[in-house]
Amino acid sequence: MNWNLEDGEAINFQQPFMYELAYYCNISMLQPWNSIEETIPCLIEEWKLLKDKVEQLFKMRNTKEVTEPMKQGIALFIQLLHWSNGLPVCLSPIQYEQLTIKPVNVKERLEFILSRPHLYHSFIQLVELMTEMEKQWFKVVAINKAKQ
Prior knowledge:
This protein has 148 residues and is an all-alpha fold. It is 58% helix and 0% strand. The protein contains five helices and no strands. The chain has helices at 18-24, 36-59, 67-83, 106-115, 120-147. The longest helix is centred in the C-terminal third of the chain and has 28 residues, at 120-147.
C-alpha cells in the first residue's frame, strides 16, 4: 500500500516502523523522513492524543493497560528522533552518534523507559523527551526558514 501525503492519504502511526520495514525490504511506500515538514506535525499530534490516553490510565491507576500505549508512545518518540534527523529508524542498535538533533542523555533516558514502560516515572521521562525533541525540531524549522 502506498501512502502519499500529496494524494490526501493520512500517515499511519498504528503500525510502528511500517515505513522503515517497507524501506528496508525495497517496497515502494511513503518515506516520512524525507518529508519531515509534513510528517513531524502529524506525529506530534498523534503523540498528544496518546499522551492524554496514557495520562488517564495512570490517573485511574490502571497499570495493567498502560504498557501497550506506552510502547506506542516509545515508538513515536523513536520515529520522531530519527525522522527529525532525516533518517529511517534503525533499531539494531540505534546509532545515536548519527543523530544531530537529539535530547541530552537520550540513550540512557530511553533505556530507562524501555526497561520499565509500565512505570509513571517512565511516562514522565517520555513526555520530557518528546517535549525536548519537539522544541529542537521547531528550532531547526525556524532556522531553515530564516535562511531562505
